[in-house]
Each structure stands twice: as C-alpha cells, then as structure tokens.
Amino acid sequence: MSHVKAATFVSPVPTRASKNAIHAFAEGVAAKLHFGPHEPILSLVSRIGGKVIYKNPEKLDGRLPESIVVRSLGDFTIFVPSITSAVRDRFTIAHELGHYYLHYPLTQGSNPGAPMRATRWVDPNDQVQQRAEWEANWFAAAFLMPTGQFKATFASKGGNLEAVAAFFGVSPKAAQIRASTLNLL
C-alpha cells in the first residue's frame, strides 16, 4: 500500500507596501503584460500559465470558492464560483493575480518550492492574512482600473459610475471605491 503525502500549502506573505506602492506595481504589471480594460482576463491567465476553474459553491457559512493555488511561477489555478457575475469574476481573478504577483515570490523566500494557497475566507483575527487580502484588493483595483485611464474615463463619462464600471468591466461598487480612492468623489 502506498501512501501519498498531501500537499502542504503556505499562506500568502504580505508585502507591507503602501496602497499607493501596490497600485503603482499593479499598473506596471498590467502594462508589462499589455493588459487593458478591454482585454479578456481569462486569456491573460492562460497566457501566463494559469487556469481558471469555476466551482459550485458549497454551503459552508455562505463562503464562495474564491482562491488561488500556486504551485510554481507559471503554474497556478484560480477558483471562482459558478454563480457570480462576469464583473465579479473579473475582479476576483485580478484579486487572485494580486496574490500571485505580490505574495507568491515572498512565500518562496521563506519556503522555497512550497505551493501557496490564498483564499478570501481568512480568520478575521488573523491580521497578517487580512493584510494580504487588502493588498490583493488594492492590486486588483489598479490592475483593472489604472489611475490615468480611470481619471480620464471618469471625466469623459461625467462621473457616471455605471458607465465607468462598464468601460472597465467591473461592478459599479468597484468603480465607486476606485473613484473614492483617487479622490474623485
């Protein structure tokens, strides 16, 4: 009888960088990848070696399967719920890419070769993982809605958040938070 050892995952290691630094980093990653508001995010994930799997949600405290497993650079899987909207999925995928670009390299510094798993459902008392979640959200916002483009679009749409959200393929709430962060509201 053979015994297969289950993978031991490490948790994301936060950068502790400022929100502005993470925004700038995310915008740089998007530019390097030639990713813009009208680019399909699923194609991008595939191009950089990842895959997206849609899962049926499990009835566990109302939690949806929003997570990423990174086995190595260029080998990762993002899990999204099968019941959410395209704009929510786009933000979720960008959030998980935040973990990939921000946190995976740091986990490898202290745990070389160990796979990383990040999930949105972290213990509210775990300040380290809460910080990693904030950073991934900051990354997603700037990755999907770069500052210069967002300000120009916000102005050209007369501040209409529905129109701005549609342009960037995000929810009106995500556009509202980004506008607020950029002091446009």
Automatic annotation (TrEMBL):
Pfam families given in the database record: Peptidase_M78 (PF06114)
Protein name, entry field: IrrE N-terminal-like domain-containing protein
The species this protein was found in: Mesorhizobium plurifarium
PANTHER family: ANTITOXIN HIGA1, BLL7220 PROTEIN
InterPro entries per the UniProt record, alphabetical: IrrE_HExxH (IPR010359), Rad_response_metalloprotease (IPR052345)
IrrE N-terminal-like domain segment(s): 78-180
